[in-house]
Amino acid sequence: MVLARLRCVKILLADDDAARARALARALAEDPTLHVVRIPRGRPLAEAVAAEAPDVVLVDMAHADRDALEGVRALSARAPHPVVLFVDQDDPAFMEQAIAAGVCSYNVLGMPPPDVKPILRAAIALFRHHQRAHSELAERRVLERAKAVLIRERSIGEPAAHRWLQRQAMLRGRRLVEVAREVLRARGEAEEA
Length: 193
What we know:
Helix 3 (66-78) links the parallel strand 3 (56-61) and strand 4 (83-87). This protein has a 5-stranded parallel sheet with strand order 2-1-3-4-5, sandwiched between helices. By secondary structure, it is α/β, with parallel strands linked by helices. The protein has 7 helices and 5 strands. It has helices spanning 18-29, 45-52, 66-78, 92-101, 117-154, 158-172, 176-186; strands at residues 9-14, 34-38, 56-61, 83-87, 105-108. It has 2 domains: 9-115, Response regulator (Rossmann fold), CATH 3.40.50; 135-186, Arc Repressor Mutant, subunit A (Orthogonal Bundle).
């Protein structure tokens, strides 16, 4: 019987409480498919993510911390990653702020932590789903803008413009959105309007 190789998930753990961080790291280390890296105290989150390139960022805090949310907000602006937040107390207002800052999964946990692996994997999957949807929407906008340019330039309808883009993509062995981007660049049009 051949065992399927499981991809190792790299977790960047940010927690100022050393004892809690050790307990969480120990619990996660029991799974050989998880690799935990802790952020040194005082290191900015975005800097640590750039250096470590994790699959998921786990932020664990005892109390609502606005400064930690600023770190998540900076990370989301520079290099979006799935961020899982564990807190000790339920605070609906803080939860709203955390999600607005870029947190994918907001969880109220006590000590010792339960099995958090499903929470981490769900956050990664949810993040990837949203990234794909965002990318597909951006590509659709590019296609629509390129078709609008062709319609205006060639005095043709939308179906003809779409067929022209498809034909060019097939002839060049390129993706449809790549040809659409070329059309926009050649005409000095911005991709986003």
